[in-house]
Amino acid sequence: KEEHQNDTLSSTPSIVFDTPDIDIKEESQEESLASEVSQPPLTDPLINTQILPDTAKISSMLGLPEDVVRTFIQEFIQTYQHDALEINAAIKAGHLHVVKKEAIKLKGVAENLLLEPLTQTLQEILTSKEEDGKERIQQAWKSVETYMQTLSQHFTTPIQEEPTPLSLSDSPPKKRLELPEIDDGEEILFNPSEAANALGLPESLIIEFVHDFIKQAREEKANFIQAFESKDLQTINEIAHKLKGVAANLRIEDMYELMEHLQHATSVEEVEGHLVAFYRKLAAIDKTMAKEYS
Fold this sequence. Notes:
The protein is mostly helical. It has helices at 2-10, 29-38, 45-49, 55-62, 66-93, 96-112, 116-127, 134-154, 192-199, 203-229, 233-249, 253-263, 271-292.
């Protein structure tokens, strides 16, 4: 007994050893409870590491100013916070497809921002199956919540003063931008089976994600137009960054490349052609989905 007690006292409580259960009658109930509380779960890398993004490194890799990178991270946090309640409700109800839909949206941006711990946990959610049980999904999503809370604490959105508006006589005329979704025989490079194989998901779920992507791109159209007419290049970069992440995950190469150009655009003048091309591609993929995957 003395040897067992010495071993117990000298062991490190923060390390979990994967060993068979041993029935030791002498261990008191208080010791068992303390052991359970002090040991973190094995499948929770985010709580142990809390690796925060290196904005200088991301800035260098993406070729963007560091303040723009920080804005991307803040937008990412806001996207998560907007959908968090819906995801928690879906997990409790066992609606795994809703959880995976949110996970694929977050994973695309997380990869671009080099948030490796978060990307790994989101991938675990994407590859989980119904038979894995609701508890595993809840545990993985709890890790996502923990990481996002820490991220929010370090990248809070600063309060910006509103610029003094120009008088009407000083305001330059705004250039109007039209983004019609014209069906002019445009071809689109897309194969849902490739995305399904790469992500380890059913093809039917990928098709559902594509429909959501089409809807999201249409919702962002008004924001693109407003930003273009206001010469707000930063907003254009931010919207393009979000859409690029989803297009990359779904392997929609044409639309990914167009959003890549927009994300790195350095002047409003070079934006118009890429936006027009993007929404023509959107009409093409919408037609393809309706014809072949309805």
